[in-house]
Amino acid sequence: MLVKRIFEAAPFVRSLGIELTSFGDGWCEARLNVISALEQQHGLVHAGVIMTPAGHTCGGAAVTIAPEGPDVITVENKVSFLRPAVGPSLFCRAQVFRAGKRLIFVEAEVTVEHGTERLIAAKASSTLAFIPLKVTNRNRDVAPRSAVS
Fold first, then answer.
1. Mean pLDDT, range 36-57, rounded to an integer
2. What's the predicted TM-score (pTM) here?
3. Where are the beta strands (DSSP E) in the chain?
4. Cα(30)–Cα(147) distance, rounded to whole angstroms?
5. H-state helical runs in the chain
6. Ordered structural domains, the chain, with CATH
7. Which pLDDT does position 125 carry in this prediction?
8. Contact 87, 34 (CB under 8 A)
9. Sign of the torsion angle spanned by Cα atoms 104, 14, 114, 45
């Protein structure tokens, strides 16, 4: 299934330790165990670390409703940080809000464990676009295109 593949085939996501935990039609959940390397200078989970599972889990939710053949790519992300993320794990649940012919709108919540409950640390919204599914050669070097000819 495509949602499993996008989690397994993303080196950056794997390097952070983000794990797909469950998914279904129009939704996806992931978990990230927090280690000190993911914290910023105040001991809180770094904002970029919070944004990554939010964005990737939104993509996971979007591909659960993709028709046979296309993949998805992010067009826009917005994350609102609601409280400092402090805890042993981050959890993210993304839900498709609306899907059109070309664009999918997904919302996500990133929560942290606090005792026996989970508190919302961030809310995210993501717009994704359907793209043709392509197999890429990850071992090739790709030089960036110059803006000046």
1. 94
2. 0.86
3. 19-24, 27-33, 70-81, 89-99, 103-114, 117-132
4. 37
5. 2-8, 11-16, 47-63
6. 2-132 (3.10.129.10)
7. 97
8. yes
9. negative
